[in-house]
Amino acid sequence: MPSNDIDYHVTDIGGVWGIFRGESQIGMRRCPHEAVAFANFFADWESLSTNGQVRVVGDCYLDRTLRGYRPAA
């Protein structure tokens, strides 16, 4: 039986952050914070109309980049 789960991925695609839903790219942002916010906006909206889980996940480069901002915060 097919899963109703939906994943949004934020990944580094060579100097910009790509936002993907499944295998389709739905946006690009230069700032990693904006990329996560963009993905979260659509995930929140979509979670209202589905019974499955909706997740936003990032690659290891996003994790490393966001951890680099932590000492400055």
What does this structure look like?
- By secondary structure, the chain is of the alpha+beta class.
- It has one domain.
- 36% of the residues lie in helices and 32% in strands.
- It has 2 helices and 4 strands, in the order βββαβα.
- It has helices at 32-47, 60-69, and strands at 6-12, 17-21, 24-29, 54-58.
- A 4-stranded mixed sheet has the order 3-2-1-4.
- A hairpin with a 2-residue loop joins strand 2 and strand 3.
- The longest helix is centred in the middle third of the chain and has 16 residues, at 32-47.
- The protein is globular and about 40 Å long.
- The protein starts with 5 loop residues before the first strand and ends with a helix.
- The model has no long low-confidence stretch (mean pLDDT 91).
